[in-house]
Amino acid sequence: MQSDDGLLSRLREPRHQFGWFQKDSLWLRSVSETHDYIEPRQINQMVLSPTSTILKVDIKDGSGYLKSPILGSSEASITQVISLSYPQDTVEVLATSIALYSFVTRGFGESEATKSNAFEISMQMDLLQKASIAKVEELNRAGLETRGPLQMALLLRFVCNSTHC
């Protein structure tokens, strides 16, 4: 019988080892205490997937999250660099642990400003799409030929190939 190297490599990840939750929970508590947070009462596991595990703790002014990505991922170091480079647009990385292959952030995901901006953009796109659909229907009623995105892409490719653009 052949061994499943994929299964064996997944089982070597720190987050799949016995006692990982206790170790990371203790570390999350210590990070919380060093950042002047309230004493975390309960740590909850929010996500357990093949690619990561996420723990959450309620802290002063929101939530703290510990993420342990898949072994070999550069997510922790990339997130930290982006956090330092663009603090207004990303979560704050409070700590990283090479031994636990985890990092802790204040908050998780999009900021309220980003959500608001994304909502406004999606509303504008919705209005634009509705207006364009109405315009296409008007052109169709008038008997004019209309082209969808695929036909326009093919036409553009044809024009570019024939004129070397």
Computed structural class: alpha+beta
Question: What is the fold-level CATH name, i.e. the topology of the largest domain?
Answer: Phosphorylase Kinase, domain 1
Task: Give the overall form.
Answer: elongated
Q: How many domains would you count in the coordinates?
A: 2
The rounded Rg comes to 25 Å
Query: How much of the residues is beta strand, in percent?
Result: 15-25%
Write structural notes for this entry:
- This protein is an alpha+beta fold and about 160 residues long.
- It has two domains: about 5-105, 2-Layer Sandwich (Phosphorylase Kinase, domain 1), CATH 3.30.200; about 110-165.
- Helix content is about 45%, strand content about 20%.
- It has five helices and five strands, in the order ααβββαββαα.
- It has helices spanning about 5-10, 20-35, 75-85, 110-140, 150-165, and strands spanning about 45-50, 50-60, 60-70, 90-95, 100-105.
- It has a five-stranded antiparallel beta sheet, with helices on both faces.
- A hairpin with a 4-residue loop joins strand 4 and strand 5 (about 100-105).
- The longest helix is centred in the last third of the chain and has 30 residues, at about 110-140.
- The chain starts with a helix and ends with a helix.
Question: How does the SSE layout of this entry go?
Answer:
Blueprint: H1 5-11, H2 20-34, E1 43-48, E2 52-59, E3 62-69, H3 75-85, E4 92-97, E5 102-106, H4 112-141, H5 149-163
Antiparallel strand pairs: 1-2, 2-3, 3-5, 4-5
